[in-house]
Write a structure and sequence with these properties.
two-stranded antiparallel sheet, 19% helix, rod-shaped
Length: 96
Amino acid sequence: VTVWQNTGDFQAKRMGLRYRPAPKAEDPAKSDGGGKKKKKAKKPKPVFCHTINGSGLAVGRTLLAVLENYQMPDGSVVVPEVLRPYFGGMEVLKVD
């Protein structure tokens, strides 16, 4: 149902999916050997992950879950309220 391509960080930004890289190792050549207190290493800032198309959700399974949970006895499907803006405000899917 989906194409598997690297989408960079586009989907991750929409999901807020980030990770914090591991801190870089301290360079021993930079330490002065004096009695000064070492500064606490700063944590790297979180960065967005790179994702693959379809990694936000399993599209086929999600569609089936909507159909299973919102199908009426006559075969029509009630569009969940949160999805209605994407269906032009349509409330029920039915074959005429």
